[in-house]
Design goal:
Structural class: mainly beta
Low-confidence stretches: 1-34
Mean pLDDT: 88
Helix content: under 10%
Number of helices: 3
Distance between the termini: 49 Å
Length: about 675
């Protein structure tokens, strides 16, 4: 039996990455042979004009710790909020859309687009992202105008990062005969400001708030051409990073700290997809370059003024998927990636732990080359059983590394079962093994590195993993899903370093619809990570070991009740509890606890929606967060002689937020 596939099927069975995404939506279908003049919907509602909703509100937050803004999405005080989702459709094919999500709060975004279906479209985007660490970090250094000024008094400083992103884009398309042409261009800029914890030696170790003030500009453009069974596209990407802070200095010593340097990168890629009967083929070729040529800080023994850094990139991929019949499907891919470092090579004076040795040595250029193979098969035994299996292999080569080549092979299998009444079961098992070339711990790295030490990402490793997903409808009103995962890593050939680790977890979810008005949900999840490592205090064989146990818990429940006050009032409640704990035990002649990290969080949200009319509604919401954490590794500013810290950056607070909003429905 022969089956005729179209471009929509091609999009479903093609094996390709995000860089090869294409538009196979229904509105792109070839309809030249269809006479639509006689089609008319006499009962369809008129969809032209404006549709959507607009919501205006105000939020008041009360907290004595800025860390609460990560959960409440607003700093202390009162803030205006705008939410909107408005669409316009004209009778001539013109369309426009405006969206706003939490505008006025710490994390928000907005999107505008307008255009004509099948012809052109313009877009404008805005986004703000904020991350808060602490508002009471202690510091003896204060940054202003490129200078870190020492202070006799310890001062408080806020550690937070804020990013503002603006973007605009334009796309256009046209169809000539059986071919569809599309072009697009998009420009975006991100501004990143704030302070983050950092450390340096001047001449003793000191922590301080490192300033951020940088912009990143990105430009992407492309051209795509598609036919009935094929598509090809040519894309260009360019990015430029500009750090406004060139270097940091003390009043008595210049250029003591170098932040991230200016850099730029570009990439040109060509991709294509083709459907031949029941076989889909996709390819991609890309070449690029990363350049870093910023001025470097001048120090004794530094022979250069500017770092002539250049890395050339080459990427390629070929993927094939073939549907042999109704039951059997085969697939495979091969990808190649190379990073060729062509930066300048200079001779630098070598620094030893006891001073300058006087010897000179060239900096080495680190190159990487990676090759991946993947094959997979899928067989549908019957309507209740489907079996999948595959083999993946990665070959990675690094120059001037302790281990220049690593090879990792993975075999996996999946089984989907639907033979149980009202149930679905998915099972997956995999086993991977990594080995490689001879390990040279001291020959290519450092003479002060123990030759028995094995870095975990280079060492031989056996990994076993298993996953089970179960979904069951217990009754008409309740549905339950359970996911369990287990993974174990064994570094059997490692004498010093990470020797083993286990990672296992479960997630249980329940969705309930008690009656027409009342619905609810509940979930619970836990994860455990156990790892073991060996070390050597005597620069010889292992003489101490460490066990690290991490545990995470997440619990939550919620309900929603509608139908009160003649179906005008809607009530809701959400509760979340999370807890994390990390414990480390070091055994060196005796067991020595190293202290632990512990945190927990209670979060409650209550809300009420009241319909003033068919078009207008008001909403009153309340949010509460109780947060606590403690880290035994943190100490006061000058608690240790010769070390200046940012103080104890733990959190212990109660935070509240009240939000009142008014919404209007457009029809």
């Amino acid at each position: 039996m022969r089956y005729k596939l179209n471009l929509i099927t091609l999009a479903l069975v093609s094996v390709s990455g995000s860089a090869m995404a294409a538009d196979f939506s229904v509105n792109k279908a070839n309809t030249d042979g269809v006479n639509a003049d006689k089609f008319q919907c006499k009962r369809c509602p008129d969809t032209t004009g404006y549709r959507g909703s607009v919501e205006l509100g105000a939020a008041y937050s009360d907290s004595d710790d800025i860390h609460s803004a990560n959960a409440l999405n607003s700093e202390d005080g009162t803030h205006g909020v705008l939410n909107a989702d408005v669409q316009y459709r004209g009778k001539t094919g013109y369309q426009a859309k405006a969206q706003a999500i939490n505008l006025g709060l710490a994390n928000s975004r907005a999107h505008l687009e307008a255009g004509k279906v099948g012809s052109y479209q313009a877009e404008l985007d805005y986004r703000q992202l904020s991350q808060y660490q602490h508002d009471n970090a202690k510091s003896n250094l204060w940054y202003a105008d490129g200078t870190l000024t020492p202070s006799a008094q310890v001062q408080a400083q806020e550690l937070s990062l804020k990013r503002k992103q603006m973007g605009m884009g334009l796309s256009a398309g046209h169809q000539w005969g059986e071919q569809n042409y599309q072009v697009f261009a998009r420009y975006s800029q991100e501004e990143k400001t704030g302070y983050q914890s950092a450390s340096m030696v001047t001449p003793r170790p000191i922590n301080f708030g490192k300033p951020f003030d940088a912009t990143t500009d990105k430009l992407t453009s492309g051209l795509s051409i598609s036919g009935q069974n094929w598509l090809t596209s040519l894309n260009y990407q360019y990015s430029e990073y500009d750090n406004q802070i060139e270097s940091l200095s003390l009043p008595y010593l210049a250029d003591i700290y170098a932040p991230a340097p200016d850099n730029s990168a570009y990439q040109l890629s060509l991709s294509g997809q083709y459907l031949f009967n029941r076989t889909a083929i996709s390819t991609q070729l890309a070449t690029g370059r990363m350049i870093q040529d910023a001025a470097v800080i001048q120090t004794t023994g530094n022979p250069i003024q500017n770092w002539d850094g250049q890395v050339d990139t080459t990427d390629g991929k070929l993927a094939i998927t073939s549907v042999l019949d109704n039951r059997l499907r085969l697939g495979g891919s091969v990808s190649y990636s190379k990073r060729d470092n062509k930066s300048s090579v200079w001779e630098f004076a070598q620094l030893e732990s006891d001073g300058i040795s006087g010897a000179f040595k060239q900096n080495v250029l680190l190159d990487t080359e990676k090759l991946n193979y993947k094959v997979n098969v899928s067989y549908r035994i019957n309507s209740d059983y489907r079996l999948q299996a595959g083999f993946d292999r990665e070959e990675l080569e690094r120059s001037h590394s302790a281990r220049e080549q690593t090879d990792e092979s993975t075999v996996w299998t999946k089984l989907d079962i639907r033979s149980f009444a009202n149930s679905k079961l998915k099972l997956k098992a995999s086993f991977s093994q990594r080995d490689g070339s001879q390990y040279q711990a001291s020959g290519l790295t450092s003479s002060i590195e123990n030759p028995l030490l094995r870095k975990f990402y280079l060492a031989d490793r056996d990994r076993s993993a298993f996953e089970a997903k179960f979904n069951h409808a217990l009754a008409d009103w309740i549905n339950v899903s359970l996911i369990g995962r287990y993974a174990e890593d064994d570094y059997s050939d490692t004498a010093l370093g990470l020797t083993s680790s286990k990672d296992y977890s479960y997630n249980l979810n329940a969705d309930m619809q008690f009656d027409k008005q009342l619905s609810g949900y509940a979930f619970a999840g836990q994860q455990w990570i156990e790892s073991k490592q060996n070390g050597s205090q005597s620069f010889s064989t292992a003489d101490w070991s460490a066990d690290v146990d991490d545990e995470f818990i997440n619990l939550g429940a919620g309900m929603n009740y509608t139908g009160l006050m003649q179906d005008k009032l809607n009530l809701g409640l959400d509760y979340l509890f999370s807890n994390s704990n990390s414990d480390k035990q070091v055994v060196y002649t005796t067991t020595q606890p190293q202290g632990d990290y512990y945190s927990y969080n209670h979060s409650v949200e209550m809300y009420a929606n009241y319909l003033l009319s068919d078009l207008m509604a008001v909403r009153l919401g309340y949010r509460y967060e109780r947060y606590y954490d403690t880290d035994n590794a943190q100490v006061d500013v000058n608690a240790i002689d010769g070390l200046t810290t940012l103080g104890k950056l733990n959190h212990n607070y109660n935070a509240h937020q009240v939000m009142l909003s008014f919404s209007y429905q457009l029809r």
